[in-house]
Amino acid sequence: MYWVYILKDSQTGRYYVGSTGDLERRLNEHSYWKPTYILIYKEQMNTKESAYSRELYLKSGATCVLIVICSLTAVATDPKSLPTDLLIALERTPCFGTCPTYRVTISSDGSVIYDGRAHVNRMGILRSSITVDDLEKLFSEFKKHDFFEVDGRYDEMDDSGDASFVITSIRANGREKTIKRYTLPKIPPPDWLIQLEERIDQVSGASRWTDSVVALKEDDYVIAHSTDPTRLSEALYNSGQQLYREQKYLEAITRWRRIIDQFPASKYRKDTYLRIGHVQFGLGQFNDALRTYQAFISDYPNTIEVQEIKYQIIMCYHYNMDLKNAYTQYVAFKANYPSDPRNPELCHMLFDTYNASKAQESSAEITQGVLNCDPNQSAADILWERGKALYNKKDYSSAQKYFQRIMLAYPTDNRTETAYFYNADCYFLLKQFSEAANAYKSFYSQYPNGKNVAAARMQEILILARISKCAEASDAFIAFKDQFPRNPSIADIQKTVQTCK
After folding, report:
1. What pLDDT, on a 0 to 100 scale, did the predictor assign at position 80?
2. Angle CA(283)–CA(284)–CA(286) in degrees, nearest 5?
3. What is the C-alpha separation between 97 and 102, in angstroms, rounded?
């Protein structure tokens, strides 16, 4: 299927007409290079030719008719009441440090949706609601300052260093307006704008979900004074999460362990087991992780997580170079879960362990079982095949894990160079732009004569310009031009760097 679509620039009021075979991907590209674009119309077509023909027709002047139709869909409302289409949103974007990253929206019925993304006390989606009275007061703040008419620009950063964006937006009575500002802007914003942002945080409840210090103090108070098992276990769980995000892993484990030992009926107990085991595994404490995983299976033998835990147990033995126990667990795992797609990878890892440990003294059963894995195909083959398959399915987060394992475990493999490039691409496609820029740089530093060096350098420059690292973008462009003086994209990239702000 193919699509014809119309976008509107919420800042300039201009329109864009296009056609594509992958609407979601194309809209993501538009959003990356022009965040102010809003999709106002889409139409599905059967063939590429018909989509392109429709695009040309709309560009010939028919767009005006569709725009009028779209504008007529706005619902008239009593000016003294809340607009039925009211939507207020506040978003704080990432920086290179530990800036709280989240988005919160408030709808006309008072419903609140919070999405904690990084460096906040409460991660993930949370839902709540506020009173109509509070929403009316908040809406009146927008009207008081003529938010729709404000024409200030605060999205140019000064030279003080890294900063994040704060994006405030509102939709009401068919109108939309967004103000985007740097936290360290060249032009200082008016005080009322910052106060409005803080007011949205307070009214929506986001200030409590994002302030880790306040939340941790509240949890500590409950732990010290409450005798209610439900409140105690919740406080221990939440404070453990916050300590984990602060990389205080042992303190987090201590709090989570109390849930396991003292609150057997807690709804957090099962998840706490998993968190402790995974933290111990990540810290390389494989023996401790083994004991935690084995205790989990003993307490929760029939849960869906058991398959994943048994896999982790094999990995613990593998990293401990304990071939005998790793093989025993693998045989049982394969018998219980014959269709698990990780079985070939596990088998090849055992083969690698056998070779690395020179385990010729192992029993004939273990030796024969390990060597039954095809000696002509290594675990790197399995990792590469699965990583590419997930990448092609656009599951970039999962694919990246396989590429990174190849990079770490198989530095001399002939596919490792491409794994480095795909790893950077995954960061980019996941919109983790600062990580992507660093990964592209790591790629061409590791493989200065690689076949994808030009592409990596160009991507790095464009990303640096996009996140307003203008000096770094300029330096990267000079290096690119020196290395590839005849590259046909030099003029376009130079224009991007020159317009960086």
Report:
1. 45
2. 120
3. 15
Least confident of 11-20, 115-124, 204-213, 245-254: 204-213
Measured distance CA(225)–CA(28) in Å, rounded: 49
**Residue found by looking up tokens 């009028």 in the block:** 68
DSSP string, 420-436: HHHHHHHHHHTT-HHHH
The DSSP 8-state label assigned to residue 148 in this structure reads: G
Contact between 162 and 95 (Cβ < 8 Å) = yes
Which residues, at least 6 apart from 498, have a Cβ–Cβ distance to it below 8 Å? none
Phi, psi of 87 (to 5 degrees): -145, 120
Spatial distance between the Cα atoms of 399 and 415, rounded to a whole number of angstroms: 14
Of the candidates 347, 382, 385, 381, the residue with the CA atom closest to the CA atom of residue 366: 347
Q: How many other CB atoms sit within 10 Å of the CB of residue 269?
A: 20
Which residues make Cβ contacts (< 8 Å) with residue 278, sequence separation at least 6? 289, 312
CB atoms within 10 A of CB 152: 13
Calpha distance 250→135 (Å, rounded): 42
Q: What pTM does this model have?
A: 0.41
492: Cβ–Cβ under 8 A, 6 or more apart, which residues? none
